[in-house]
Amino acid sequence: MKPLKRIAILGSSGSIGTQALEVIAANPEEFAVEVLTVHSNADLLIQQAREFKPNVVVAVDSAAFLKVKEALEDLPIKVYGGAEAIEQVVQMDIIDIVLTAMVGYSGLLPTISAIKAKKNIALANKETLVVAGALITQLARENGVNIYPVDSEHSAIFQCLAGEWDNKIEKIYLTASGGPFRGKTREELLHVSKAQALKHPNWTMGAKITIDSASLMNKGLEVIEAKWLFGLQNEQIDVIVHPQSIIHSLVQFEDGSMKAQMGLPDMKLPIQYAFTYPYRMKTDFPRFNFLDYPSLTFNAPDRNTFRCLDLAFLALAKGGNLACTMNAANEVAVAAFLEERISFLQIAELIESCMEIAPYNNSTEIENYIESDRLAREIAQTQLIKLQH
Ligand code: NDP
Ligand code: MG
């Protein structure tokens, strides 16, 4: 009998985490869940633990930890609390692959810890590569660890590259849906609400990435993610708006041939591929029908209106800790927008001012990224107060 693939899911209560559990539930002969972690959603963690019987669960929040511990007392499941517990449990011998599906900077240290323990990574948490791509890829090389992309665009490129490992990439195109505000002018965006920004046309995702998609920062983060995942030069990465989200991204080779990966938008497919690579596993997901999509359209992103994409290209060009600074400022800005403290267009304004002020350096030590992140958040809070006056 084939051994089960034993999986740790970091961020199991989120959009990616719950879809990963759907993939696992549909294939009990392939996968076993060993670890589940959340920040504070105790109720869902309890329910997931009862259903999937993992070895260990972690809740970062202390009240959530106490609630989960009490609720699971009748089961032989270890329950831990606190952020450091995640860094420890990812190292357990019983884990084959770690799905990083927590949101934002919080993914960085657990991912490093898992790589050092030689665990393969199914990477959804793109912010980890944005913050510390040079360090993460170096650690993965040193430890012989594979990083399988879960982000749909990067999974598409990875799928196009299968069997092409010796062929040089000329360039890649990351497709972007354009989000809910595609085609809008700056004037039209002046007063858009949080509810409007949270309405993504093609994907249902966590709040942070949904706002990133509306501002095009998500595509900016993905450009930097692609650089590190595929070892590309900056000028090899391009973005094209494709509102139907059917072509998930493209690779252009040196002979001019282009390969694209297509399908209906459903994150369960890239999640599953990251778990089963190099194999494909049968699914009953709905199939694409050409006649439902008589035209697939493409246009250039509007980088003047959606400044965040330009800021990410700037961070890519300058390298060093600038992407780390940008990411921290973006997390502060998105949280402030979700609390209705700043307007939609002020997200880019806040990030840009932090990128101008925060000190630049190009050290790849972990302490540097931690300090750059901390400082950028501090600067962002000061800039936020200025913006509100
Ligand atoms: P969600 O907001 O839906 O879920 C986030 C998960 O992380 C939850 O389980 C949450 O727990 C946990 N979490 C939040 N903050 C912390 C923290 N400080 N420490 C530990 N755990 C934490 O996010 P998504 O699932 O949408 O996104 C997850 C990652 O995947 C992001 O990096 C995103 O960019 C990426 N991604 C997502 C896609 C999608 O379709 N959703 C597509 C491509 C990439 P709790 O519920 O308790 O707060
Ligand atoms: Mg994506």
Structure description:
It is a single chain. The chain is of the alpha/beta class. About 45% of the residues lie in helices and about 15% in strands. Among the domains are: about 5-150, Rossmann fold (3-Layer(aba) Sandwich), CATH 3.40.50; about 320-389, RNA polymerase sigma factor, region 2, helix turn helix motif (Rna Polymerase Sigma Factor, Chain: A), CATH 1.10.1740. The strands form 2 sheets. It has a 7-stranded parallel sheet with strand order 4-3-2-1-5-6-7, sandwiched between helices. Strands 9-8-10-11 form a 4-stranded mixed sheet, covered by helices on one side. β3 (about 55-60), α3 (about 60-70) and β4 (about 80) form a beta-alpha-beta unit. Bound molecules: NADPH dihydro-nicotinamide-adenine-dinucleotide phosphate (NDP) and magnesium ion.
Question: Approximately how much beta-strand content do the residues carry?
Answer: 5-15%
Instruction: Describe the largest sheet.
Output: 7 strands, parallel
In CATH, the homologous superfamily of one domain goes by the name: NAD(P)-binding Rossmann-like Domain
Q: Which word captures the global form? A: globular
Low-confidence regions: none
Listed once per kind, the bound small molecules are: NADPH dihydro-nicotinamide-adenine-dinucleotide phosphate, magnesium ion
Number of helical regions: 16
Q: Report the CATH C-level class of one domain.
A: Alpha Beta
Helix content bin: 40-55%
Helix and strand succession? EHEHEHEHEHEHEHEHHHHEEEHHHHH
CATH architecture of one domain: 3-Layer(aba) Sandwich
Radius of gyration: 20 Å
How far the N terminus sits from the C terminus, by CA atoms, comes to: 66 Å
Nearest-integer average pLDDT:
97
Estimated structural class = alpha/beta
How many individual β-strands? 11
Within the CATH hierarchy, at the fold level, what is the topology of one domain?
Rossmann fold
